[in-house]
Design goal:
This is IcmF-related N-terminal domain-containing protein. It comes from Sorangium cellulosum. β5, α6 and β6 form a beta-alpha-beta unit. 52% of the residues lie in helices and 11% in strands. The C terminus is likely disordered. With 1165 residues, the protein is α+β, with helices and mostly antiparallel strands. The chain has six domains: 110 residues; 275 residues; 171 residues, no CATH class; 151 residues, no CATH class; 149 residues, no CATH class; 134 residues.
Length: 1165
């Protein structure tokens, strides 16, 4: 059977018993400890016992009502109305709380008005005691109300309804379902006019049923009187007018009023509450006249009930009794089954214990011979098996002691067999006769035999002789009901002395083993096996005093012949051979030395070097055994001398070699580090916080100082001494040394790479100046996220070699981190090495504010006035003449010898972020000011002529001067905007500045271009005082066509005129001449040529002249076609061309309009 099934049965049985006890205790607690009145249940029992047997199981009707409500008269009237008197008079003289009736196949319990109104727990307990045995025999509760009582009011009726409901709820809780409830109104002959006359008429007309209202509301209750009118209407004609009036008023006024007044009562009685609500069976109307002359009149039967409901309750009651009986039987069966099942489980546990004993005995028989104390596993298994058998064989419940007899006998037999094979039979077959006698006497003893009594009286003697605990001897006797029936084979080999040659062979093998560096398991097994064969001669047959009586009792059990065969005729009086006697002490010492030797080593699988060195200290350590010297004497001279220390050192070296070989093989096969058995023992460290500042990856736990200090440093420092102390053989020592050297090199490389990866994972991801300021404020505080990052690096890169070559390899691998270690020297969150760095960072903090500056004012407001603090920092770092934070941090890093980029970047990151934010704020401000304030000052002019060659409207000199003149608004705005961020060169324009070590500030390209254009234009058109300046052009006329005689007309000269200056071209070598363009005067500009008739003096001229415009010269240029290399050609016949420098359009056309050509020139082309 499954253990879980047994446990389930046992738990169920115990639970049922506990439940029964709890219910019993509760029942006892419910009963009044010192009742002041007789028990209602006892009164009911006496009443029922006095009834005929046929009436004792009749249904019970409970009648409730307040005092003087007419309950008893109503019950008697109902019994009489049923056609027969009561079987018994009202009975309960000893208890006024209860009046009992019997009749009409029903039993009636009238509850007194005082008990109805008693809400104490004692009253509730008394009723519970009365109703609990018969709750399912109560199908009906009748509540009697006196229509003329003082309580007939809404408040009084609601109170009576609540009192009755409390009693009904108690009955409901006992039944499981609510009983039916009938309401009886009494004394209507006095309280309701017309009822006295109506009742006989209704009864004569056949109306015997109670009133059944459709609901509990006042209107529904009032309507319940209406059926009475139908019954009595035929007989109303027989009444006198006065009686008819009273009946009519009852049917229409007083009757409906009385029933409507029941609404509060029925709400309290039938309304929803915690328990199931009862249902209304009907309303009975009753007149109970006082005196002897008046007979009670009932409209309805108060005591009638539904027979089907009674039968149903009876069936439920029978089922409850059957379930209770079944539950009791089940509880008993479960307890019984649980007890037997648990006992079977105990037997199973005993069987498991005996199984373990058998396995331990089998292992002990396969192992080399050892004394009992070395067999700890077998000893523990025997003790556990004996305890388990005691529990199984001697249970507390006596019937269980004879249960499962065959299983118990089998367990005992197996237990005794294991003890015989483990302890008794080997000694019974051994060569030492004393031990053989003790073993045989225990082997053939039983619980009730003389041998058993002798052993039981002195168990320590047998325990000492057999080298077993005294408990084993007692356990064997206690479990042996009869002597063992088996037999022991007599020892073989007779009693011949062991020869010197036998010992010489064994001693020679021992000498050979001692000359080796190590001893294998096969060699040790061979020595131990030969020693075991020789050990019998050591014990010999010494005089064994006090065993004569034991031998005689043994003879009584087994017979003389068998005992003589086992022990010899004079077994107790034999002497050992002379040679063995002379060397007894030395031979015993050597045999013990070899016999107790072991090459067992713990498993090296999955272990670290630290754990391996601990194991080596055990397997190769000096056990502390006393050094002894054993000399073998033959014929009076010492032939061999043996030191136990030499054999101990041999075993130590052999065990160490075996263990080291296993460790090296395991590390190599697994391809793992020799330093860590479980990397999970060292969790990763140093991960940054969720704000993405600091390290974004963790440093693996195996590359932490904790791991190095725990798993690497201790074994490396103790490595050589540990190998020397454990006497590790040369070959194994060399293999382990190579393994450790390779492991150190590999770990050093991986440790360095892990630190670099950790440092390189540094991030400072922040997108606002306020966020950067918060991070930097936290950074420069003590024990900040920044110091945590660097402490992680420094702490886990700090390795002190301490003169150890292996640790030196690790220290050298981490040498690149020594500057960090030096900077982070400190304690308790204070690191003086960072003070100089923080001194650079701290002044930047006030500048890390990107709030809006004050209103910038006019378009030519200085750039600094437009910038918030972060922008002003940007201007400050552009000033190369002042020390900047980036330069200071770089100088500090150089001084701290932190040269590696990955190590420098985290220190530079805050400054670089501040630089970037500062420059970006400057750039955004410049862009906005250029777009919104400065460029609009010149933008309208850029579309006018001559700034736009295609412009139709000319720019006035005044507007141009006001905008781009020496003191023009555009020039001033550009200078204020770009001056702080640009470096002016020799040519017009500027080059954006760049902070040392950072990028250049970015400015709008158009602003730079227009600033350069405006500067050049101003230099060409005005002097420093703003006075107009002629545009200094150099022109050179191109050669005119040669005059051909006979051609008719020839060009004699060309000209280009601006103001008062004219440049002429002739048919001779042209030369460059100055042509100042006085653009601010009203003088005209013209170009043309003169033609002469060949051979005559008559001339004519072709001219293009422009006047009335300040830009007349450029208008003149629009009439020409611009060619390559500054050639301007006017379309005369033949054309007239001039070379010009500088290109006139390049002086006035801004970069955005270059390439645009005059409309007239385009049309001419």
């Amino acid at each position: 059977m499954s253990l879980w099934i047994i446990v389930v049965f046992a738990v169920v049985g115990v639970a049922l018993v506990i439940l029964a006890v709890i219910l019993l205790v509760r029942q006892q607690r419910r009963a009044p400890k010192a009742p002041s009145a007789p028990s209602l249940g006892a009164a009911w029992s006496r009443f029922v016992r006095g009834l005929p047997a046929s009436a004792r199981r009749d249904p019970v009707v409970v009648v409730l009502g307040e005092r003087l409500a007419g309950k008893s008269r109503l019950v008697l009237a109902a019994l009489e109305q049923g056609g027969g008197p009561a079987l018994a008079a009202p009975d309960a003289p000893d208890d006024p709380r209860l009046t009992l009736f019997a009749g009409r196949q029903a039993l009636v319990q009238e509850i007194s008005g005082d008990l109805l109104e008693d809400t104490r727990a004692e009253a509730r307990d008394a009723l519970r005691e009365l109703w609990e045995p018969l709750s399912l025999e109560v199908p009906l509760v009748v509540v009697v109300l006196d229509a003329g009582a003082p309580s007939w009011s809404p408040v009084g009726l609601r109170r009576l309804g609540a009192l009755a409901r409390a009693k009904v709820d108690l009955l409901t809780a006992l039944r499981g379902t609510p009983p039916r409830v009938r309401v009886c109104l009494t004394h209507l002959d006095e309280a309701a006019e017309g009822f006295r006359e109506l009742a006989p008429i209704a009864r004569d007309a056949g109306h015997t049923a109670e009133l059944t209202p459709a609901g509990r509301s006042a209107s529904e209750l009032s309507a319940a009187v209406a059926p009475l009118g139908t019954y009595v209407s035929p007989a109303l004609a027989t009444l006198s007018p006065e009686a008819l009036g009273r009946v009519t008023r009852f049917l229409t006024v007083s009757g409906p009023g009385l029933l409507g007044a029941l609404a509060p009562f029925l709400d309290a009685l039938l309304g929803g509450r915690g328990a199931a609500a009862p249902s209304l069976e009907g309303i009975v109307l009753a007149g109970l006249p006082e005196g002897e002359g008046g007979a009670a009149v009932l409209l309805g039967d108060p005591l009638s009930f539904d027979g089907a409901l009674v039968d149903r309750d009876a069936r439920v009651f029978d089922r409850r009794r059957a379930r209770a009986a079944a539950l009791a039987v089940a509880a008993g069966a479960a307890l019984l089954l649980g007890a037997y099942g648990w006992h079977l489980h105990v037997l199973g546990r005993a069987g498991d214990a005996v199984d373990r004993l058998e396995r331990a005995a089998e292992d002990a028989r396969r192992a080399p011979p050892r004394s009992w104390p070395a067999n700890a596993r077998a000893r523990e298994a025997e003790a556990a098996a004996a305890d388990a058998l005691s529990s199984a064989l001697r249970p507390l419940w006596p019937p269980l002691r004879v249960a499962f007899p065959s299983d118990k006998q089998d367990l005992v037999a197996r237990f005794l067999t294991s003890l015989r094979e483990l302890y008794l039979l080997p000694r019974a077959r051994g060569g030492e006769r004393g031990g053989r006698i003790y073993a045989l006497s225990l082997l053939y003893a039983s619980r009730d035999s003389a041998l058993g009594e002798r052993i039981r009286s002195a168990p320590d003697a047998w325990a000492a002789a057999l080298d077993i605990p005294a408990r084993v001897a007692l356990d064997y006797i206690d479990r042996s009901e009869r002597p063992w029936s088996g037999s022991v084979a007599p020892p073989s080999g007779g009693e011949a002395e062991v020869s010197l040659a036998d010992w010489e062979g064994w001693l020679g093998a021992l000498d050979e083993a001692l000359r080796r560096e190590t001893l294998g398991q096969d060699g040790l097994d061979a020595l131990q096996k030969q020693g075991a064969a020789l050990s019998a001669s050591i014990g010999g047959a010494v005089e064994v005093d006090g065993l004569d009586a034991v031998i005689e009792e043994l003879r009584a059990v087994r017979g003389d012949e068998e005992v003589d065969a086992l022990l010899g005729p004079v077994a107790a009086r034999r002497r050992e051979p002379r040679w063995v006697t002379e060397n007894r002490e030395a031979l015993e010492g050597l045999l013990a030395m070899v016999g107790q030797g072991s090459l067992a080593v713990p498993s090296a699988k999955g272990k670290s070097l630290r754990e391996a060195l601990k194991d080596l200290a055990v397997v190769g350590g000096d056990a502390g055994a006393k050094a002894a010297v054993h000399a073998i004497v033959v014929d009076g001279r010492a032939t061999r001398t043996y030191e136990t220390r030499a054999f101990s050192d041999l075993l130590r070296s052999s065990r160490s070699g075996l263990y080291v070989r296993a460790f090296v093989d395991d590390v190599g096969a697994a391809g793992r580090s020799p330093f860590f058995a479980r990397a999970s023992d060292y969790p990763a460290v140093g991960l940054g916080d969720a704000r993405q500042r600091g390290a974004t990856r963790s440093l693996p736990g195996t590359f932490t100082a904790r791991a190095v200090d725990a798993e690497i440093k201790p074994p490396l420092l103790a490595f050589d001494a540990a190998l020397e102390g454990a006497r590790v053989p040369r070959d194994e020592r060399a293999a382990l040394t190579r393994l450790v050297a390779d492991g150190v090199a590999r770990h050093a490389s991986e440790h360095r790479a892990a630190l670099w990866a950790y440092v390189s994972s540094f991030r400072l991801d922040v997108t606002s100046a306020a966020g950067l300021r918060a991070d930097l404020e936290a950074m420069i505080g003590p024990a900040s996220w920044f110091t945590d990052f660097w402490v992680t690096v420094a702490d886990n890169a700090r390795v002190e070699p301490e003169g150890n070559a292996y640790l030196q390899v690790l220290a050298d691998a981490l040498a690149a981190f020594r500057p960090i270690v030096e900077v982070m020297a400190g304690e308790k969150g204070k690191y003086p090495g960072l003070d100089a760095y923080y001194a650079v960072i701290s002044p930047m903090l006030p500048s890390l504010d990107d709030g809006a500056p004050a209103a910038p004012g006019p378009a030519d407001a200085p750039l600094a006035d437009r910038l918030p603090p972060i922008g002003k920092l940007g201007l400050a770092i552009l000033d190369v003449d002042k020390p900047a934070p980036l330069q200071q941090v770089t100088a500090w890093l150089d001084g701290a010898r932190i040269h590696e980029k990955a190590q420098r970047d985290p220190f530079l990151a805050p400054v670089a972020l501040a630089y970037g934010m500062a420059l970006q704020r400057v750039e955004r401000t410049i862009e906005a000011a250029w777009r919104e304030q400065v460029r609009p000052q010149v933008a309208p002019l850029l579309a006018r002529f001559p700034l736009d060659p295609r412009g139709e409207v000319e720019v006035s000199p005044e507007d141009l001067l006001a905008a781009v003149g020496p003191k023009g608004t555009f020039r001033s705005g550009v200078d204020q905007l770009l001056g702080p961020v640009c470096r002016k060169g020799s040519a017009a324009g500027c080059t954006p500045k760049a902070p040392a070590g950072s990028r250049a500030v970015r400015v709008p390209g158009e602003a730079v271009e227009l600033a350069g254009w405006a500067e050049k234009l101003a230099a060409a058109l005005w002097d420093d005082g703003g006075n107009p300046r002629a545009i200094a052009l150099q022109v050179r006329p191109q050669a005119l066509p040669e005059v051909q005689y006979g051609a008719g007309i020839g060009v004699t000269r060309s000209f280009l005129r601006s103001g008062e200056t004219t440049v002429y071209g002739f048919n001779q070598a042209p030369a460059w001449r100055a042509l100042p363009v006085t653009w601010w005067t009203s003088s005209a500009a013209s170009a043309g040529m003169e033609q002469t008739l060949v051979g005559a003096s008559d001339t004519r001229a072709q001219t293009i002249e422009i006047s009335g415009s300040a830009w007349r010269f450029y208008r003149l240029l629009c009439r020409a076609a611009a060619g390559s290399a500054g050639v301007v050609t006017w379309p005369f016949d033949p054309p007239v061309s001039f070379d010009m420098q500088p290109a006139p359009w390049a002086l006035v056309v801004p970069p955005g309009n270059r390439g645009r050509r005059c409309v007239s020139a385009v049309a001419t082309d």
